[in-house]
Every structure is written in structure tokens, then in C-alpha cells.
Amino acid sequence: MKNLVSNKLIIIGVIVILFSSCVSQKRYTDLEAKYKKCNDDLNSIEKAKNDANVMNTELNAEIEKLKKQKSDITVESAQLKDNYDKLQGEQSALSSDYSVLQQKYNKLLTGNRAETSEIMDALQKTQGDLLKKETDLKKTEADLQKLQLQLNEKKNVLDSLSILMDAKEKKLNELQSILTNKDKQVNDLKNKITDALLGFKDKGLTINTRNGKVYVSMDEKLLFASGSWNVAEDGKTALRNVAKVLELNSDINVMIEGHTDNVPYAGAGQVKDNWDLSVLRATAIVKILLENKNIDAQRITASGRSQYSPVEKADTKEARAKNRRTEIILTPKLDELFKILETN
């Protein structure tokens, strides 16, 4: 179960989207609010998962304890029942003996005084034993009733815990089903994107999955000339192929992230630095995707990361070339998952 929930957490991490820069102050504020909401949602999911794990552990321990107590009470009840049956048999035998002695006493009442005295003594002893057995029987009956009440109370608690466990297990199964479906959705999406971009495999394009999301990474050489944010023709073709996949998968959110190397931007005009360049490149790609009128613009977010999220930290020509990239991050929506968590 623990591994199961850990896998869920990895998938739930899909809601975390980092926004580092925007084209305007208002856009930046909106992205920052989205980031905070996603972060809060993630914390809620993690708390709900931890609470569910703690509750399941405590309930399992309590059920095992109650089962042990129930077993002990059942054994003790059986023993008392055996003693009760034995005492009843002894009481019956003593009653029979008492009756016989009573008859002998009445018969010999006028006979030998010594024999009569002996019979009297035996009769009194038998009567005393009978009273003691009756007292023991009453005590045993009271103990049996007390144990039965305890057994009923434990059974009621056990039934209540079982109902609660069933409800928790049902909710966890629903979560697992949704997360499993999201895994399949992510893998299917990756395959569709891979097929759509098959012709660009050796042109600076890589596709992989991380944390329940599909990452389509395009090198600068596929999309832009150095220092430019105008998309090259090969890049436009690749992006339009991506747009066709997005059109057919309307439940996928899209984040476009622009990345640069650590060489200061040397251009002029409104573009002052790598921050500006990375954002302009991201928005340029968004505009090409939205040429497909069947894609809802609300699904897409543009973000510039400048030089601060490198894939290679070495200060070499090869590392800088890898860092100059644009990533299209595709994330399945988690509305079903949030709906289940909100019912807790």
C-alpha cells in the first residue's frame, strides 16, 4: 500500500507548474497566483494521502487488537459454559442425593438415634454443598452475561471500524484507478507526439516523460536563429504537428518554457536580456500553436526561464548549445482526482 501511495504522489506532482517570468507585470501576477494555487493543491493532496495512510495504519492496528480480544473472550466464554454445565450436573446429582437422604431421614426418624444423627449430618452437609453450588452457578451466570456484553461491544466497534476501512479502501481504489488512467494517458500522449514528430528525431528534438508529464524539448537550431525569436520553417512544421495532437486531446494543459544559455544577450531595442528573449521565444511558439483554431488558448501558458534552468551546468560550447532550447510541457488535467480529494 505504501508503494502504491508513493506512486500516486509522483503522479499528483503533475499539478506543480513553475512560472518564472511573464511578458507583463499583470501576466506575471496571474502566473504567480496559479503557481501558489497548484502548490496549495499539492500540499492538500499530500496531507490527504498522509492522513489516509495514518488512519489506515491505526485502523488496522485497532482491528487486530479487537480480533485478539474477541478471540480471548470467546475462549473464556466457552470455558465458563463448560463450568456452568458441570455445576448444573453436580447440582442435579446433589439434589437427587438430598431427596434420597430426605426419604431415609423420614423413614428412620423413629429408628436408631445414632443412625438418625448420622443421616442428619450427611443431610446438612449435602444441603450446604447444594447452596454453595447454587451460589457458584449464579456467579458463573453473571460472569457469562458480563462477558457477552463485552463481546457485543467489541463486535459493534469492530463492525464500525470495518465499515470505515471499507470506505477508505474504496476511496483509495478510486484514486488508484484515476492515477493509473493518467499514467496510460501520459504514455499514449507521448506515443502520439513521438509519431507526429518522427521526422524531426535527428534535428534537435527529444521527447520523454517525467513526473506524470510529457516533455517535448526542441533545440535552438530547430526553431530559431541565434538571438532571434522568429520561428524557422522546420520549427513551424514541427509545432503544427504538435498542434494537431493537442487538438485531438483537449484535456491536456500546455506550458511553453523558453530557455537560453548564460551568454548575455547582445541585441538592442525592446529586448534587453536573456529573460526577454526566453519569453518572446515562448510566446512566438504559442502563437504558432494557436494558428489551429480548435485549440483553446486558456489551456496554454507561456513562460521564460532565461538561463536559470540549464540541463548542462558545464561552461562549454556543447553545454550552452543544449541549454538553448524550448520545452513544451504537456500535463493531463487532474479534475477527477481533486474532486475525490475534496470529498474527504
Number of helices: 8
Give the CATH topology of the largest domain. Answer: 60s Ribosomal Protein L30, Chain: A
- Work out the strand percent: 5-15%
Give the neighbour order of strands across the main sheet: 1-2-5-3-4
Unreliable stretches? 11-23
Judged by helices, strands and strand pairing, the structural class is alpha+beta
* CA(first)-CA(last) distance: 19 Å
Q: Provide the CATH architecture of the largest domain.
A: 2-Layer Sandwich
Q: Would you list the SSEs in sequence order as H and E? A: HHHEEHHEHEHEH
Summarize, please.
67% of the residues lie in helices and 10% in strands. It has 344 residues and is of the alpha+beta class. It has 2 domains: 5-42 and 185-342, OmpA-like domain (60s Ribosomal Protein L30, Chain: A, 2-Layer Sandwich); 58-179.
Describe the structure using short key phrases:
2 domains; 8 helices; 344 residues; 60s Ribosomal Protein L30, Chain: A; 10% strand; five-stranded mixed sheet
Task: Show the helix and strand layout.
Layout: H1 2-12, H2 25-108, H3 113-196, E1 205-210, E2 213-219, H4 220-223, H5 233-248, E3 252-259, H6 274-289, E4 300-304, H7 317-323, E5 325-332, H8 335-342
Parallel strand pairs: 3-4
Antiparallel strand pairs: 1-2, 2-5, 3-5
